[in-house]
Design goal:
By secondary structure, this protein is an alpha/beta fold. It contains 5 helices and 5 strands, in the order E-E-H-E-H-E-H-H-H-E. Strands 4-3-2-1-5 form a 5-stranded mixed beta sheet.
Length: 136
């Protein structure tokens, strides 16, 4: 079992990245929902990006957390993107027909995200964490 981590970082005053690593399951669900909602509620935020590039597993409760986050963002008019979807995570989202609901094909892939200013916080220390990361 991978230790799960959530890091929330601001790339500027308008964009927030919620980077998740490890497994998104029932044990991480509440923390992920809380992190996404906190990001959506930050003053001035216009886009929340959930980066799953280092996520090794997702179950139905994890998918539910991503949908709750999307709905929270839509409710207040904040953009919402899920990026870095690959491997088992992509397979589960495709099997459950959630890939199109959560992943915008027009949004840059991980390399495009790095070039555009959204990056994984641990790889680019210029990002300021807005919440401490927690491991289980």
């Amino acid at each position: 079992m991978d230790a799960a981590r959530i890091e929330t970082c601001r790339s500027d005053l308008e964009a927030v990245v919620v980077a998740v690593s490890g497994e998104i399951d029932v044990l991480l669900r509440a923390r992920l929902v809380g992190s996404i909602r906190a990001a959506v509620d930050l003053p001035g935020v216009k886009t929340v990006v959930v980066d799953l590039a280092h996520t090794s597993f997702i179950d139905a409760s994890g998918i539910g957390a991503l949908v709750i986050g999307r709905n929270a963002a839509r409710t207040v008019g904040v953009g919402y993107r899920v990026i870095g979807v690959a491997g088992q995570v992509r397979q589960v989202l495709e099997i459950t027909n959630m890939i199109d609901a959560l992943v915008d094909p027009a949004w840059p892939d991980r390399d495009g995200v790095m070039r555009s200013g959204f990056t994984e916080p641990s790889a680019y220390p210029a990002y300021r964490p807005t919440r401490p990361s927690v491991s289980r």
